[in-house]
Design brief:
11 strands, Carbamate kinase, 8 helices, alpha/beta, globular
Amino acid sequence: MAAAKFKRILLKLSGEALMGEQDFGICPDMLSRLSDELVDVHRIGVELALVVGGGNFFRGARAAAGEGMDRVSADHMGMLATLINSLALQDALERRGLATRVLSALEIRQVAEPFLRRRALRHLERGRAIILAAGTGNPYFTTDSAAALRAMEVRAEILIKATKVDGIFDDDPEKNPDAQLIKKVGYLEVLERGLRVMDSTAISLCMDNKMPIAVFNMRTPGNLKRILMGEDVGSVISE
């Protein structure tokens, strides 16, 4: 079997990705399929760091804007939602034999280890997958920004964002059937054109540190492995 193109990756999963076709919560079938794919890519020698959002349970910014909730309180609730998803993913992976550790930016020692960079690196070096929960631990920062930050901290070779569309488009493909897929694009162009891939903080951080970003459709089985084997799947943001 050919070797994977990347040795260590950071995969950003949205909370909505875990919903499947549901309107809320975690879809067991989607969690199962995703876990199978992660175990599969780990078997080919890829070290896995994962950041999971919490939008399937709660979105801090939306609650603050729509319900008048204090933004800091709302964001902390969103961080706790990411921890729920992280624990569910950890359970699914470990039932498949993949040793996994949840490291949280908020200290909740009964269910997760506190995030310490050296500890995270040690887990990766020992063949464990790590799930990095609770964003950065700070309000006003999204899990996209957390994914960019953690990708640099754990020395990932690429940040991969799983979405429900085939990559980066010049318009919303769910609303505009004529939206065009953009295969390769630079960081500045993403910012200047306002392409809705990740928030501007995440894009800027990756640009400053030359961290490439791949964007792909996780609803297509096998896409993640195809990217890691160097196939032309989805879109890439780089210099």
